Amino acid sequence: MSDNEHMKISLFTDIGQKRSNNQDFINKFDNRAGHTLIVLADGMGGHRAGNIASEMTVTDLGREWINTDLTDLGQIRDWLVNNIEKVNRRIYELGQTDDFQGMGTTIEALVIIENNVLFAHIGDSRISLIHDGVYTQLTSDHSLVNELVKAGQITEEEAASHPQKNIITQSIGQASPVEPDLGIQTLGANDYLLVNSDGLTNMISNEAIVAVLTDETKDLDEKAKHLIQLANDAGGLANITVALIHAESEGDQ
């Protein structure tokens, strides 16, 4: 894994305090060229449908990825778009059956190539950069309230407590083709990329996230667990899933 020798990755998911099951799913997969794909999915739908939508989305994408030897960013971008749409169709078709009616999921899919992270985003899970103690959200929530904020109809503050906060405008499992937002982020030494389901960011502030990540006394796994603990302490109203990617400086090996 020479490719990721300066990138550390930590993944954790937690049921939270209020839910009877965990409909979030996360995993990472390496392709034949040694490049890592991380996929986070926050499932929705009654009964076990949400669990299955998220697990299928992550596992199907991973299964395809491990059989590639892609290293070119353009080819990887096309691969993500094509394969995310394949998964969308599969989940949509399964969602037409009685058992899995209305199933769907968010997705964050990230491929690490040296110090670049190429990502695809659908739904209201988030990818953020923490650089020099500053939190920057790299994705824009595909949610009804975010559309209202962007249209200037409600404020960010009103969005935070809006009764329709959980309605998303795009998800894996919809009838029409999905249109993932695509981006690329280059990580400098000591930058963090945070990938999370809304169970984290609905519960704790960006300032609290920065405080955890800049705490030099904790290692990466401890930081990820601490974020989840804070969300649980604040009420843990949803499942909480966190991936942290840390670009270490050359001297930190």
General description of the model:
Strands 2, 3, 4, 5, 6 and 9 form a six-stranded antiparallel beta sheet that branches. The longest helix is centred in the N-terminal third of the chain and has 22 residues, at 73-94. The mean pLDDT is 93. Helix 1 (49-65) runs antiparallel to helix 2 (73-94) and helix 6 (206-213) runs antiparallel to helix 7 (220-233). The protein is 30% helix and 27% strand. It has seven helices and eleven strands.
Strand and helix layout:
Blueprint lengths: L6 E8 L9 E7 L5 E9 L4 H17 L7 H22 L9 E2 L1 E7 L2 E7 L3 E6 L2 E4 L6 H7 L5 H5 L20 E6 L5 E5 L1 H4 L4 H8 L6 H14 L6 E8 L6
Antiparallel strand pairs: 1-11, 2-3, 3-4, 3-5, 5-6, 6-9, 7-8, 7-10, 10-11
Summarize the structure in short.
This protein has 253 residues and is of the alpha+beta class. The chain has seven helices and eleven strands.
Q: Which short descriptors sum up this protein?
A:
six-stranded antiparallel β-sheet, alpha+beta, 7 helices, single chain, 253 residues, 27% strand, globular
